[in-house]
Amino acid sequence: MHNKTIADLAKGLRSGEFSSVELTQSFLDRIKQHSSLNSYITVTEDLALQNAKAADAIIASGKAEWLTGIPVAQKDIFCTQGVKTTCGSKILDNFIAPYDATVVEKFNNVGTVMLGKLNMDEFAMGSSNETSYYGAVKNPWDTNTVPGGSSGGSAAAVAARLAVCATGTDTGGSIRQPAALCGITGLKPTYGRVSRYGMIAYASSLDQGGPMARSAEDAAIMLQTMAGFDAKDSTSVDQPVPDYLAGLNNSLDGLKIGLPKEFFGEGLNSDVAAMIENAVNEYRKLGAEIKEVSMPNLKLAIPAYYVIAPAECSANLSRFDGVRYGYRCENPADLTDLYTRSRGEGFGKEVKRRILMGTYALSAGYYDAYYIKAQKVRRLISEDFKNALAEVDVIMGPVAPGVAFGIGEKIGNPIEMYLSDIYTIAINLAGVPAMSVPAGFVKGMPVGLQIIGNYFSEDRLLNIAHRYQQVTDWHQHIPKGFE
Amino acid sequence: MALTAGDVKKIAHLARLGIDDQDVESYAKDLSGMLDLMTQMSDLDTDNIIPMAHPLDQVQRLRSDEVTEQNSREKFQAIAPQVEAGLYLVPKVIE
């Protein structure tokens, strides 16, 4: 049951082959059996079974939608009413969210089953899931390696069949990079496509929620539920949501694919590069035309990001002050001590590093040199995407420069860790949508192909990914021990 | 550009962020490394470029001035570290 797609599961539920309670129980059993992966922070067993019973009633009444009764897990960055929502941090270890994120509400509205809350890098700051207060997540393909991050729990859980699919969020690659490293399909939508209400903020002008699933079709089904305008999110975009399933099988004949030479230079593992070339050749067979494009400012994406994201994070995380919710230090001497120690004891090292960086970049005398400069560079990077996407329909390249690295290998060197996000970060600065699609293996570890499109072209990206998955089976491989 | 331990302490104070004395040097080193990365940007001429604050260059959406949220004080204070009579308690600020 746990290897079936959402579409197959939905059919099975409707035909009465199995119930949502049975399906949910089988996933709960698997989660227990594979708890050593550490992909879940909280398993909501009772709630899941209640959800499943309710879903079975909806299915029996003939009102089921695609996701009704399907066991899904939420990244622990999404607020879930009455359920602990930690964001991977000690500072929120005691936080029971008083309301649901819009994304969670949308899943609830269609009768989805919530299995629990997934592990993640603390406040989504990290590329390896090692900054979580709840410990590192293991990659099911090799448990000595990281699953990527920050949505590492989501990617590991979906790859290990501990959830049918999961939500993720992506500020600089946090959906795509773990999806690539765990061999699943992930989509970062256009900025503003999915509501950020109730999604704990890291860098508000970059954060975007999206689906993490085992195929493009499953991701399309998820996005159909997740996307849409939300008055509660002031940056939500008021644009109609297309039918993401309708065009999945559209022909790719004449599709123009751009390969930026900056994506294939120094630093890219040659075996990974070969896998990406194979994938591009597959697209050639499907009728696509390949063209080289240039994005000269791409190399500045990392410096610009590490000003803008920390600046926004230092402002966003100022709300964690030990007064209204979350962790408070013992016996504060005065109000300053209360703030300083609650935050000092509640946040981990990577979060502190970014708060410090952001505070510095925004402080008097440095604001123009760093923050304004980075915003100007951001515009130039975004122009690079506009120019390239005027010539071609989509841009393709690797998601990450290599496959999953060892747990503990990079955590001591933050700058090296930041540099590994070179292919994903620019996309968030521009705000365009991008996917990670399984495209092969290097020494047994998954490689992800990145497909980047123009604003609001999620339907086209899903179509392009789906057609590839019709002629390849990389997305169907299962890590050993999780069959 | 290199930050000193003193700079780090000053920034930490601005952020009201407690950091252990033994970690100050390593933060100084890490932040200096990040600032080195950022010098790459200074070579690029950005004189006539408009800073980009929002990917879609949207402006803040306005709504009509109507009450949409009900008072949820009790619900919100149920998760607060310390409350009394509907108030959040903090250490004494005024003597």
Structure description:
The complex is a heterodimer of chains A (483) and B (95). Chain A contains 15 helices and eleven strands. Chain A is of the alpha/beta class and 483 residues long. Chain A has an eleven-stranded mixed beta sheet, with helices on both faces. Chain A is globular, with a radius of gyration of 21 Å. In chain B, a hairpin with a 2-residue loop joins strand 1 and strand 2 (87-88). Chain B has helices at 5-14, 24-42, 73-77, and strands at residues 83-84, 87-88. With 95 residues, chain B is mostly helical. The mean pLDDT of chain B is 93. The two termini of chain B are 43 Å apart. Chains A and B meet through helix 9, helix 10, helix 11, helix 12 and helix 13 of A and helix 1 and helix 2 of B.
Structure described in brief:
The complex is a heterodimer of chains A (483) and B (95). By secondary structure, chain A is an alpha/beta fold.
- Global mean pLDDT of chain B: 93
Number of strands of chain B: 2
Side by side, the strands of the main sheet of chain A go 1-3-2-4-6-5-10-11-9-7-8
Are there runs of chain B of 5+ residues with pLDDT below 50, and where? none
Largest interface: A-B, 71 and 50 residues
Strand content of chain B: under 5%
| Total DSSP E strands of chain A | 11
- Strand arrangement, major sheet of chain B: 1-2
Mass-distribution shape of chain B:
flat
Task: Give a quick account of the main beta sheet of chain A: strands, pairing sense, barrel closure.
Answer: 11 strands, mixed
As a whole number of angstroms, the C-alpha radius of gyration of chain B is 22 Å
List low-pLDDT spans of chain A: none
- Give a quick account of the main beta sheet of chain B: strands, pairing sense, barrel closure: 2 strands, antiparallel
Give the N-terminus to C-terminus distance of chain A in angstroms: 11 Å
Average pLDDT reading of chain A: 97
Given the C-alpha coordinates, what overall shape of chain A results?
globular
The amount of helix of chain B comes to: 25-40%
Which secondary-structure class do the elements of chain A indicate? alpha/beta
